[in-house]
Amino acid sequence: MNNKQKLELTWIGKDKRPKLEPRILLEDLEKSYHAKQRVTKNDLFDNRLIFGDNLLALKALEAEFTGKVKCVFIDPPYNTGSAFTHYDDGLEHSIWLSLMRDRLEIIRRLLSEDGSLWITIDDNECHYLKVLCDEIFGRRNFLSCSVWNHSVQSKGYRGKFSVHHNYILVYQKSSEFVLKDLPRQEEHNVNYSNPDNDPRGPWRAGDVRNSLVRPNLMYDIVTPSGKLIRHPPKGWRFSRETFEKELAEGKIKFSDDETRIIRKIYLADQEGRVPETIWFAKDVGTTREASAEVRAFVEGDFFDTPKPERLIKRVIELATNPGDLVLDSFAGSGTTGAVAHKMGRRWIMVELGEHCHTHIIPRLKKVIDGEDPGGITKAVGWQGGGGFRYFKLAPTLIVNDRWGNPIINPEYNAAMLAEALCKLEGFTYAPSEVFWWQHGHSSERDFIYVTTQNLSAERLQALSDEVGSERSLLVVCSAFRGVTAGEAALRWPNLTLKKIPKAVLARCEWGHDDYSLNVANLPMAKPDPVESSAAAEASRKTRSRKGSAASADQGSLFERNGGEDKQ
């Protein structure tokens, strides 16, 4: 194969990409919540809970948060097929991949260069998702496919495996990411001893063999009695200079028969422990434990596979520092935000389902008020504090009037319109208190002015004079009269004129509010004439457990039953 060729995952509809509208976010102060007083000087208040379609929400975050998110944890729908009994599997699988691709591409842009992505998934899509992430993040940035022992109780049907694991795919944005160590426990020190009374304390033997071929590390060693120790096939882990230095310091010693060397790894030098790729239930919890955590603050059982707080705690402690920003765009029952809050990290969560209001908000209020004793509360010494701001996605900017003509949405006031146009044109929305025509800026000398007025040539001349020759201004207006666009460019070189909505009509898919998986619109597959009675019974029992929130609306499973609510 040509080295320049690239292997890619293909699926039906891969070439189709949505033209997303960069919506603005509207805060609902009645749903935002903050502690009545500070608990510590490090309390965090500007966390964000966003209600709306998570693809549109991710797009809405791009302008402000590109390159600023340190850790993304997502728990997307596992695509188990239980919600697609009557639909063609190949098409359903392809839609799932497209939906994940669209979200992951924006997530990558939101991540900082030293950021990382953590995705929980099961066998149904794990291996396809791995290849998809390789395409988006690059294979060199793959870090781990860790196994989470999410269940310790045997279950299932005769002749089938009882599944006790899920996966956690981990990718870094770039090589700048630093994976942190886990805290050490006494049980991790059992292999350390001090048989030779080394003054540095307990030690264990470390591997002296190199994993890559390095010619400068391929040298033989002569022992004190004159024996020759040949180098390993790929060389030693250290240079000759390092070997001689550590030998003199007593950090390297020879075995009694002088047939091998021993390099000491000292317990005193081990501040933490390297994370492993198997995460046991006893360390990070199970879905049963997570269900109990959810039931502690809300009635009902709407989540089939919630994530325990201990699991999210491990992700956050491996990937972030206090004050870092954590994002979860499949919020589910809000575990990520609750854990990030208790651990002193800033957070953003996105959820479209009504459980945003029935589950997430009540949970976060208890966390903020210090009334959530469960999960990791005791482990991190959480006592309450901080807060969050609640946002919803603004409606679409462009709608059709009763004659079918595109117009600016009447729901937009002047401030909303200015902010929306700033986002569309790539400007930072920052209205000036001094200059009425400065609604935003892209640099120190480049500004934008948004108005629904019809501007005359006289008004444009006055505007040009006030802007001056040292600055430039994008003027977005309903219309201008008395001059053509070409004449305007010659008369006022410091102004650029655009008419709305005409200038933005082709930019986006206006009026598209839901990019979730709409199974109601999928074509029906041919029925399977030999469906077993056991499978039918399993399907019936699965549907009966979904709860009222899931059964009420199966039309948008990728969002409303996403995150921790697996179908």
Structure in words:
Residues 526-567 are annotated as: Disordered. Its EC number is 2.1.1.72. It catalyses: a 2'-deoxyadenosine in DNA + S-adenosyl-L-methionine = an N(6)-methyl-2'-deoxyadenosine in DNA + S-adenosyl-L-homocysteine + H(+). Keywords: Methyltransferase, S-adenosyl-L-methionine, Transferase. It is an enzyme of class 2 (transferase). The protein is of the alpha/beta class and 567 residues long. It folds into 4 domains: 42-184 and 274-393, Vaccinia Virus protein VP39 (Rossmann fold, 3-Layer(aba) Sandwich), CATH 3.40.50; 186-270, no CATH class; 398-504, 3-Layer(aba) Sandwich (Trna Endonuclease, Chain: A, domain 1); 519-560, no CATH class. The chain contains 16 helices and 27 strands. Strands 1, 2, 3, 4, 5, 6, 7, 15, 16, 17 and 18 form an 11-stranded mixed sheet that branches. Helix 1 runs parallel beside helix 2 (89-110) and helix 2 (89-110) packs parallel to helix 3. The longest helix is centred in the N-terminal third of the chain and has 22 residues, at 89-110. The radius of gyration is 29 Å and the shape is globular. It starts with 24 loop residues before the first strand and ends in a 7-residue tail after the last helix. The model is unreliable at 83-89, 530-536, 538-557 and 559-567 (pLDDT under 50).
